[in-house]
Write a structure and sequence with these properties.
5 strands; Trna Endonuclease, Chain: A, domain 1; single chain; 120 residues; alpha+beta; 2 helices; 30% helix; 5-stranded mixed β-sheet
Length: 120
């Protein structure tokens, strides 16, 4: 049985492949900002896309997207702000969530664009 870390890593790999198939450019993976991390920083045309990936084995508990709490959103936005400042990004930024649920050898991937908006 795979560990949660292995499931998470496999989910992030599948999310990256999904984004590349859609024509996104992957700018960063596992970007560290202090003690915070962004799973994937991508670019969709002229838009910067911050992607939070949630992967689970089956649906024993909650849907993976439900694990993106208000506190988690706050941390994602803080890390994204640090990234945007570091690269001096002047364009639009979007926050997406990709969920991956594994069912044995199969998986289901969902991509939620504009999943949340940062509060000012």
């Amino acid at each position: 049985m795979a560990t949660q870390q292995e499931i998470g890593e496999k989910g992030e790999q599948l999310a990256q492949k999904h984004l590349l198939r859609l024509g996104y450019k992957i700018r960063e993976t596992n970007y560290q900002y202090g003690h915070l991390e962004l799973d994937i920083v991508a670019q969709d045309g002229e838009e910067l896309v911050i992607v939070e990936v949630k992967a689970r084995s089956g649906l024993r508990y909650e849907h993976p997207s439900e694990a993106v709490t208000n506190q988690k959103i706050k941390r994602i936005v803080e890390a994204a702000d640090g990234y945007v400042q570091r690269i001096n990004w002047q364009g639009d930024t979007r926050f997406d969530i990709i969920t991956v649920i594994f069912f044995g050898d199969n998986f289901e991937l969902e991509h939620f664009k504009d999943a949340f908006y940062p509060t000012l």
